[in-house]
């Protein structure tokens, strides 16, 4: 084989590999979209525009570095072929299982964060409510005791007065 044909095959293989790499990057975007649910379509559009800009720069860089910037149709076909090969072989499984794993980790991290943050806050709030309730209870109890104490003082006074009157009446 001539050196030129070998170089063309090498360039073709590099373009196929870069097509696969760009598909892996897109799968990363797909996984991100599954894990972080987007409420607005505008964010999806921004992500797509950024992805295609990155793809364009990457393809231009590869073509510029390997083929001196000469755009050849077989290079573009190789990028597409690499992408299609990746998409139809392992892409489905990678996106499916990695996104499931990340969703599980996300849920676990939320639960752990809730346990770490919320449970101490709950305990803190309970202790404050107990202290507040105790202080409210203590204030109410003091008020009640004052009233009861005043009442009991009055009752004692009344009983004393009754006893004194009874003594006087018995003495007469």
UniProtKB/TrEMBL annotation:
UniProt keyword NAD present: no
Keyword hit for Disulfide bond: no
InterPro entries hit by this protein: YabQ
Pfam families named among the record's database cross-references: Spore_YabQ (PF09578)
Biased composition (Basic and acidic residues): 152-164
Keyword vocabulary terms for this entry: Membrane, Transmembrane, Transmembrane helix
Spans traversing the lipid bilayer: 12-29, 41-64, 70-95
Region (Disordered): 145-172
Record's signal peptide: none
Protein name: Spore cortex biosynthesis protein YabQ
